[in-house]
Amino acid sequence: MKVLLHTCCAHCAIVPLKKLRQARFQPFGFFYNPNIHPYQEYVKRKGAIETYAQRTGLEMIYRNEYDVEGFLRSVVYREHERCRHCYHCRLEATAKMARKGKFDAFTTTLLYSKHQNHSLIKEIGESLAKQFSVPFHYEDFRKWWQEGIRESKAMGLYRQQYCGCIYSEKERYWRKKK
Fold first, then answer.
1. Integer Cα distance of 28 and 98 in angstroms
2. Could you report the per-residue pLDDT of 111-129, keeping only the tens digit for each?
3. CA–CA separation, 102 vs 169, rounded Å?
4. Contact yes or no for 134/165 (Cβ under 8 A)
5. d(Cα 120, Cα 111) in Å, to the nearest integer?
6. pTM recorded for the entire structure
7. How high is the mean pLDDT of the chain?
8. 2-177, which class in CATH?
9. Rounded distance between C-alpha atoms, residue 63 and residue 35, angstroms
10. Within 13 Å, how many C-alpha atoms sit on residue 29's CB side?
């Protein structure tokens, strides 16, 4: 089964890629993350996934658009709903690409993170699956959180310290400062 794996970053891709391959899926990566701020962070994450994909033989599709302005316009004054929008815009792009590429399913590395809202990701993924007629593969990869951390450190992969958007960056570092 050919599955399109939305990738937010390299270290979050380790466990999902391994588990999907063990389950006999044929995963292809898809990098689309207009939420990442600042641009240097975007470049680091994209570079890390390129390195990781090359090392592991993960075929990748890059939608190399840095539309942070579009992301910000869509969440301004709705910051409390920013994750919903962020998940939706990235998963919608993944579902569209999965349909276009005749994939059997789509999923996301966001399901590896214990910091993400899994029920919301699943809800959005299943809704988009109906809309685009491509199944959403939900799997809870959090069980292997520590394994992924160990492997990413052993590989020397870049490991970011916040989810990606300007709001999560502030939450990560501003709290520390107080």
1. 10
2. 999 999 999 999 999 999 9
3. 36
4. no
5. 11
6. 0.94
7. 95
8. alpha beta
9. 13
10. 29
Sign of CA dihedral 53, 122, 22, 105: negative
User: CA neighbours within 13 Å on the CB side: how many for 172?
Assistant: 11
- Specify the 3-state DSSP secondary structure of 105: strand
Cα–Cα dist 58/153, whole Å: 19
Write out the H or E segment, with its range, that includes residue 61.
strand 60-62
What is the chain's Cα-based Rg? 15
Question: What is each CA distance from 138 to 39, 117, 129, in whole angstroms?
Answer: 30, 13, 11
β-pairing, 60-62 vs 105-108, is unpaired
Sheet holding 105-108, edge to edge: 60-62, 26-31, 2-6, 105-108
Would you list the domain boundaries of the chain? 2-177
Give the end-to-end CA distance of the chain in Å, rounded to a whole number.
Answer: 49
Closest residue by Cα to residue 14 from 113, 160, 94, 91: 113
Q: 171: which 2 tokens?
A: 């939450």
